[in-house]
Amino acid sequence: MIATIWAWLSDPTNWAGAGGIPAQSLEHLRLSLIALLAAALVAVPIGLYVGHTGRGRVVLVNVVSAFRAIPSLGVLFIAALLLLPHLRGNLAFELPSLIVLAVLGIPPILSGVYAGIEQVDPAARDAARGMGMTGWQRLWQVEVPCALPLICSGLRSSMMQIIATATIAAVVGLGGLGRFLIDGQANRKYDEMAGGAILVALLALVVDIVFSLVQRAVVSPGLASRGRT
Amino acid sequence: MIRLEGVSKEYAAGRPAVDNLTLEAATGEITVLVGPSGCGKTTSLRMINRMIEPTSGRILIDGRDTARVPAATLRRDIGYVIQHAGLFPHRTVLHNVMTVPRLNGWGRARAEARAREVLEMVGLPGDFGRRYPGQLSGGQQQRVGVARALASDPSVILMDEPFSAVDPVAREGLQDDILRLQAELGTTIVLVTHDIDEAIKLGHRVAVLRQGGVLAQFSSPADLLAHPADDFVADFVGRDRGYRALSFQHADVPVHPEEPVRLGQPLGRRSEEWLLAVDDGSRPQGWVVPAEVGEGPVRVEHLHRAGTVAPVDGALRALLDAALSSPSGRGVVVRDGVLAGTVRAQEVLSVIQQAPRPDGASIQGPESASATGQRP
Q1: What is the pTM of this model?
Q2: Which of the following CATH numbers is that of domain B2-77+155-248+362-369: 3.40.47.10, 3.30.365.10, 3.10.180.10, 3.40.50.300?
Q3: Which of A73, A98, B30, B245 sits a CA distance of 20 to 30 A from B356?
């Protein structure tokens, strides 16, 4: 079994062309990043607002847990069926999937941003206000930098969620590494399926490592040595 | 000068946290607000820089109504120190201290130079600037908190229980530093504490507040101890107020010469019951019993250290304590750390008995402090 998977993975013909491993990996990455960006554009401002003002906290917690209960495959089919007749060309395949991916990517970012802002030391917030920072200055100079570790981990788990779900999205015609799994299953080529699964896991791993390096670069070292003496 | 005029704060109708408070914090002095929890002292303080808006009344700083200044602008001119320091964990100590100058539009280089200067003033030189708050002890963090408040050289600093979360040893050092810095800079400080000892040590004037935010007494620490306005203040000031009042009394007490022995040298033929040991700089180290020392030199293990040491021009409380705590009954007094002689408890007591009581001339009870709008 391992030998046949390896044979598939190392076969040069699988690495060439538009449907090859590099092309599908890039496609998978491209779709995931677009979905993550869209999710962040929605979730970050809302999370900042709720964390900073404390308003709408209960609503946010409920929405996040409701979102997490969404069955991804079901929504995928519904979105595809509803939107497909209204769209043309490439967009017809990509847009429904991208919307679903973005929607599924929202909850981890939302709760990461909100919880990050929320857990900022109340004394630091009080001091920031007391020394004359405006609301915006407090947000950008104190709350966001202190919340970065949790914001980053929210983005990371959102990205993992999106990469994983993007695999399923091949069912409704989306490109990416999911093609190997779906097409492999259709053609009963189990080496291709297993190879595809390994590639998805590898992609997720590499992306997470890159994100963790970015996180290390942007988070202040002062937040790492949190232990008070 | 900070003036609170009939200031009240009600969170729920009819239950004031601060009730018609009128108070003046004089320029260049430390005014302490003290009282049990729920007396509205922190609320009163936070109304000065509009962290809390008063329900009624007005607050003037140097004649300027604070309500007419935008809150953020007002706060940038007022230093602010809080209980747990509230340092920004993601910024280095240096950048924490640079915060207010930067908010006030100073250039980076000027703000940095100033930050180093104030860090030095609070006893955190050089290398400390590069550390993060999480790497400092509680006392050091609060020093940075004080430096941060001093950085833009404000004429007014508000301190909300600044030292209550710090261990007792560090607290003492911080209190001494605040007294020193305030004397040097002439800053007007309003400080909140629940600790009457801290209030008496730090305050030029002390305002005692009672539950419900009513001013019980506003006077100098010596007055407060000698003439509590009522049972509540007397209770709050505490039992040993007679003894503590001696902290504010100074008088000449006879100083007797003391023939010390040197650490590291033999006693020779001395045979008194107790001998005072000093180091090479004539600084008192402790008492020794000749029988325990024997033939050899006086060593550190021989020292009895129970006695406290008082400055020769110290308050009567320190002199009396030196005499009472000394195993030999001779209280050690020093001038600039160098042995000056010893005092006797009896003689300190007779000086105390002859000294005039502090008079009540400067007592200011609630009647005179808030003459306007007394509740029925």
Answers
A1: 0.80
A2: 3.40.50.300
A3: B30
